[in-house]
Amino acid sequence: MNSWKQMLKESIVQPADLVKRFGVDPRPLEKVVARYPMRVTPYYLSLIQSVDDPIWRQAVPSEEELQAGACVADPLDEENQSPVPNLVHRYPDRVLFLVSSECAMYCRFCTRKRKVGCAQMRITRDTLRQGLDYIRSHPEVRDVILSGGDPLLLPDEALEWILKELRAIPSVEIIRIGSRVPVVLPQRITPHLTRMLKKYHPLYINTHFNHPLEITPEAAGACGRLADAGIPMGNQSVLLRGVNDDVATMKRLVQKLLAIRVKPYYLYQADLVEGTDHFRTTVEEGIAIIDGIRGHTSGLGVPAFVIDAPGGGGKIPLLPDYLQQIGAEVVLRNYQQRRFVYPNGQPAPEALLMAGNQAHLGR
Ligand SMILES: *Cc1c(COP(=O)(O)O)cnc(C)c1O
Ligand code: SF4
C-alpha cells in the first residue's frame, strides 16, 4: 500500500537521469538544480512526449531559470504578512498555513520557489503548534488553507493530527487543502487517505492541473476518489508560456477538468518570481483566453483570471471588456462581440422621491 512512497523515492532528482531517455546534455542544468531543486516522479515523467513539451517545461529545469530579471524572491510579500512562521494572514477571515516543505515535483514556475524543497523552509512540530495557536487565538479566522509545499506529502498520521487540531477550534468553519499530488503523484490518493480526510468535513481540495495532457486515467481516479469522499474539488492553474497560453489548450483543460469532477477555480497570471521570467505571458493574453472560453463552453468551467498583486495586495480579478459603458444605460458586449443595451436602475417610486431624483445620476 506504500507504493506511492516507493514512487517518490524513484523520482528523478538529477539532470543526469534524463540523459538515457532524452539524450540532453545535463551539465548546464546541474547549476540550476544547485539553486532550485529538481524532483520529477516516474509517473509525471512518463507523460512527457518530447523535449520541451508542456509537461517537460513544467518539470525539467531550464538554464533560463538563472537569468537575471526584474523579479524578486517573494513577490507576494508573504514573509512580511506572516505573524508566525509559515502562516500568512492577508485577508480578514482566512489564513494560508504552510504545513509541508516538500512537493512530489518541484514545478519550475513555483511561486514559492525561494523555499520549497530547500533547507530554508523549516516546518517543525513547533512551527505547526505556533500556527495552530495563532488560529486558536484569532477567532475571526473561519477558513484555513493548508499549503506548502504539498500537504498531501505528509504521512496520513501527521496530516490527521493537523486536521484534528484544526477541527477542535470552534471558529474554524472550513478547511481547504492545496495539493498538486492528484496531478503528479495520483497514487498518493489511497483509500486510507480518503477515509481519513472525510472525517474532517467541510473539507475542500484545490488541485493544480495546467494542461489537458495531465488528465490521465490515474489522475481521474485520484480526483474521483476524493470527490467520492464528498470533497468538493477545485483547480488553480497558472498561465504559463509554452504550456497553456492559448485558448484551445485552456478550453480543453477546463472541459476535461469538469469531466473528472474538478471545478476550475482560478487562472493565475504568473507571479513575478525570480527564476520564472521565461514562463510569463502578458496580461492581455490571459484576458483573451477568458474571452475565448466564457460563453464558448460550460460556464461551470470558466475560472476567475486573477493577478496576485505584487506586495501582498491579494488576488484581483481581471475580465474582458464585457461592460463597455455604464450610466443610465448599460452597454454590454457578449461572447460573440455583439452589443446589447440594458436600461439601468429603475428604482421604486418612493426611493426616487427620497433621493430627490439623484438616483438618475447613476454611478
Ligand atoms: C490565495 C490566498 C488565500 C485564499 O484566497 P481565496 O480567494 O479565498 O481562495 C488566502 N490567503 C492567502 C495568503 C492567499 O494567497
Ligand atoms: S506543487 Fe505547488 S508548491 Fe510545490 S513546487 Fe509545484 S507549484 Fe510549488
Describe this structure in words.
- The protein has 363 residues and is α/β, with parallel strands linked by helices.
- It has 3 domains: 4-65, no CATH class; 79-320, Alpha-Beta Barrel (TIM Barrel), CATH 3.20.20; 324-361, no CATH class.
- Helices cover 29% and strands 17% of the residues.
- The protein is built from 13 helices and 12 strands.
- The protein has helices at 3-9, 19-22, 27-35, 42-45, 54-59, 125-136, 156-167, 181-184, 191-197, 217-228, 247-259, 283-293, 349-354; strands at residues 87-88, 94-100, 143-148, 174-178, 203-207, 233-238, 262-268, 304-309, 314-317, 323-326, 329-333, 339-343.
- Strands 1-2-3-4-5-6-7-8-9 form a 9-stranded mixed beta sheet. The chain has a 3-stranded antiparallel beta sheet with strand order 10-11-12, with no helix packed on it.
- The longest helix is centred in the last third of the chain and has 13 residues, at 247-259.
- It is globular.
- The N and C termini lie far apart (61 Å).
- The relative contact order is 0.10.
- Mean pLDDT is 94; it is low at 356-363.
- Bound molecules: pyridoxal-5'-phosphate and iron/sulfur cluster.
